[in-house]
Amino acid sequence: VSLFQFVQTPFTGDVLDGSIGQSLLRLIVLAMDACRTEWIFRIWLVGVVLLMGRLVVGFCALCWQLRGSQAVSSWPVWWLLQECKTANGIQLPIALLESPHITSPCILGLSSPKLVLPWGTTSKLSREELRDVFLHELAHIKRSDLPLLWLVETVRALHWFNPIVWYICHRMDQDREEACDEMALDKSEPNHRRAY
Fold this sequence. Notes:
- This protein is of the alpha+beta class.
- The chain has 7 helices and 4 strands; from the N terminus they run ααβαβββαααα.
- A 4-stranded mixed sheet has the order 1-2-4-3, covered by helices on one side.
- Helix 2 packs antiparallel against helix 6, helix 3 packs across helix 5 (about 125-140) and helix 5 (about 125-140) packs across helix 7 (about 165-185).
C-alpha cells in the first residue's frame, strides 16, 4: 500500500481496511486541512500587513511633510481659535499650523493636538468661514475621533476580506464628518448657518 493510493482514492478500495489505514487516512486529511488553513492564514496576514503598513506609512509620511509647517502668527486668528475652543469646552492647548503639503484642514496628535491648515487659508477665508473650519476640526477633538479612527482602521485591516466591514467603516467615516458638521452648525452664528 502506497501513500499515493491514500491521496488518490481515500474512500475506495481495500486501503481503508484495518485501523492502520484509517488512522493514516485521518492523518493525511488533517495534514491537508492544516496546509489549506496555513495558506489561508498567510493570505490573511499579508492583507493585514499591507493595510496596516499603508496606514502607518501614510501617517509617517504626513508627519514628515508637516515638519516644515509654520505656526500661524496672526493674533486675530489665534483668538478666534481660542473662542472656538471655549465654545466646544476644550481645555487642551492646540497648536495652529499652516502647511503647503496638505489640501484640507486636519487634526493631528492625541495628547498635544495640532490643527493644520493648508497654506494661506487664514488669508483666503473670512472670519466666519475660518470659524466654521475651527469648529468642525475641534469637534473631532471633542468627540475623540482620532483614537476611534485608528480603531476603525485596525478593524478594517483585520477584516479586510469582508465587504460588509468595509461598508460599515465607510459609513462610519461619513457619519463622523456629518456629526462634526452638525456640532459646528450648532455653535455657528445663526445668520451664517445657511452659508455653511
